[in-house]
Automatic annotation (TrEMBL):
Stored Pfam families: Polysacc_synt
Name by which UniProt lists this protein: Polysaccharide biosynthesis protein
Keywords per UniProt: Cell membrane, Membrane, Transmembrane, Transmembrane helix
Annotated membrane topology: Multi-pass membrane protein
Transmembrane feature ranges: 21-40, 46-65, 86-106, 126-146, 167-185, 191-215, 244-264, 296-316, 337-360, 366-390, 402-422, 428-450, 462-486, 492-512
CDD domains: MATE_SpoVB_like
Entry superkingdom: Bacteria
Biological source species: Pallidibacillus thermolactis
Keyword hit for Cell membrane: yes
Localisation: Cell membrane
Amino acid sequence: MGSKLIRGTMILTLGTYISKILGLFYVIPFNALVGTQGVALYQYGYVPYTIFISVATAGIPMAVSKTISKYNALEEYAVGRRLFKTGLAIMLATGLLAFFFLYMLAPMLAEYIIPDDDLTSNVNDVISVIRAVSFALIIVPFMSLFRGFFQGHGSMGPSAVSQVIEQVVRIVFLLLGAFIVLKILNGSTVFAVQLATFAAFIGAIGGLVVLFWYWMKRKPYLDALLAQDRGKVQISLSQMYKEIVISAVPFIIVGIAIPLFQLVDMLTFNKTMASIGLAKEAEAFYAMLNFNSHKIVIIPVSFATAFSLTLVPLITRSFVNEDHTELRLQLNQTFQVLLYLTLPATFGIMILAEPMYTFFYGHNEIGANILFSYAPVAILFALFSVTAAILQGINRQKFTVLSLLIGLLLKMILNIPLIEAFQTNGSIYATSIGYGVAILINLLIIRYYAYYRYRLVYRRSLLIFIFAVIMGVVVYLSYRIFSLFIPVDNQITALILIGICAVIGAVVYFYLSIKSRLIYFLFPDQVKKLKQRLGTN
C-alpha cells in the first residue's frame, strides 16, 4: 500500500512538473511572436482569471480526494459516489457563475488597468482579452472535481495525464493560433492574444476528454466497488461540503497569494507610471516584471517548495501526536532544505540575469535589470508557501489568511508611492515588504504554537548564505571571463554561457556542502540511497 501511494504521488508530481516546464518554455516563441505589448495584454487577462480559477477550484481536488479516500477506507463507497455526482453539478454551476462575473467585470477592470490614452493598449483590447480567457472558467472547476474523484480512489494517473494533455493542447493552440494570425493572415496582435488566452478553454476541453476516457475505462471497476458498499454511514451533503470547504480554504489562500499581489500591480502600475511621465514605457515594463521575470523567478520556487512540502504530512503527524522533539527536527529540516535550494538559485539568477533574460526573451538590458532586482523575491515566495503549509500542518491555517491580508494591505498602501519613487523597482520593493511581513507573522505563529525556536535554522542559514556567496563569487568571475568570448546578446550563446556557469556554480556549492557535511544533515535518506547505489560506505 505504501509503495502504491509513493508511486501515485510521484506520478502526480511528475505530471505537475511536466506541466510547469511546458508552461515555462512556451514563453520563448510566444514572446517572439507577440512582443512586449502582447505579453502585457496576455497578463491583463490571465491575472484576474488565475484569481477566479483559484477561488473556484484551488484545493478542490485535494479536499475531494481526502474525503473520498476517508470513506473508501471505511468501505462506504456510495458516499464518495454521491459526493462526485452532486459535486459535478455544483462545480458546473460555480464555473458558470465565475465565468459570468469575470465576463461582466471585464469593462470595469479594463478601465482600471488602462487609465491613459498614451498607453499602447486601449480599454477595448483589454476587455476582449479578459472575456476570451473567462470561457475556461466554465470547464476547469468541473474538471478539478473529476481529478479529485480519481485521486480519492488512489489513482493519480488520470490527473497527471490530463494535466499534461491540457497544457500541451493549450500551448499548441496558443502558439499555432498566434502564428497563423500574425504571420499568415497579417492580423492584429490583439486578436492573436485573444486566441492565446482562449487557449485555456481549448486546453481544458483536452484535459476533460482524457478524464472522460479514464472514467469510461474504469467505470466497471468503480461500479464493482460500489456494489460492495457497507451502507452504514449516513452523512448529509451539507456536512460533506463543510468538510471539503474547510480542507480547501488553506489551498485557496496559498494559491491566490501571488495573483493577488500581481492584481495590485495590474490595477495601479500603468496609472502610476503614466502619472510620472512614463506612459509609453509602462506596458513594456509591466510585461517585463509580472510576466517575463516572474516566469524565470518562479522556477526555483516550484522545485524548492515541492521538496520542502513533502515534509508537511510528517509535521502534521508529529503535532497531532504531541511529539515536540520530532516536530522540531522536521521544522529544522524543512526550513533548511528550502533555503539550501532557493538561496543559490536566487544568486545564480541575479548574476546571470542578462544571459537568462536573453535566452527566454531576446537581449534587453532593462529586462535583465528588472530580473536582477526581482530574483530575491523568489526566497519570499518560497518561504510564504512553506510557512503557510506548516500552519496548516499544526492546524493554525486561519493565521495564513490574517498574514496574507496584512501583507496585501501593505502592498496596496506602498505600491503607488514606491513606484513613483523607484519606478518598476518600486513595485518589487512593495511586494517584498508585503511578503516579508506576512512571513514574519507566520514564523511568529509557528514559534508560539509549535513551541519552536529558530536557533539552529539561524546558524545553518548563515552557513548556507556563506556557501551561496562563495558560489556566487565563483560564478560571477566565470561569467565575466567566459562572456569575453561568448556573446551575451544571442539566445544560443546565452544558453551556452548559462550552462557553463551553472555547472561551475553547482560543483562549487556541492563541494562545499560535502566538505562541511551539510548535505548529510539536510538529505540523510537521499545520501544513504545514493551511497548504496554507488556501493560506498
